[in-house]
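For reference, the entry.
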Amino acid sequence: MTNSDVQASIRYLVPTDERPIYIASQAGADAALNIGAQFEERTVTVYDARQLQTPASLDKQGFSLAGHATRVENFLPVGGSAGRL
């Protein structure tokens, strides 16, 4: 693990013989995700893809990194505290 890698909690579908079904809810603040399935949380390491010796590609990793210019000088929330988004 490098200094830029992080631990994160990810929810995965629990494998079963039944296929999950998405059940739509109302939109807005009361919207809910209901797919009629069980999830389990696992802690995983999220690696910094910028550290890869060979750059990531859509064909192999399913994503690629691209540079982008910005005029934003501070990506921290107002008040300057880094925390959960």
Strands lie at 6-13, 39-46. The chain has a mean pLDDT of 83. Residues 1-66 form one domain.
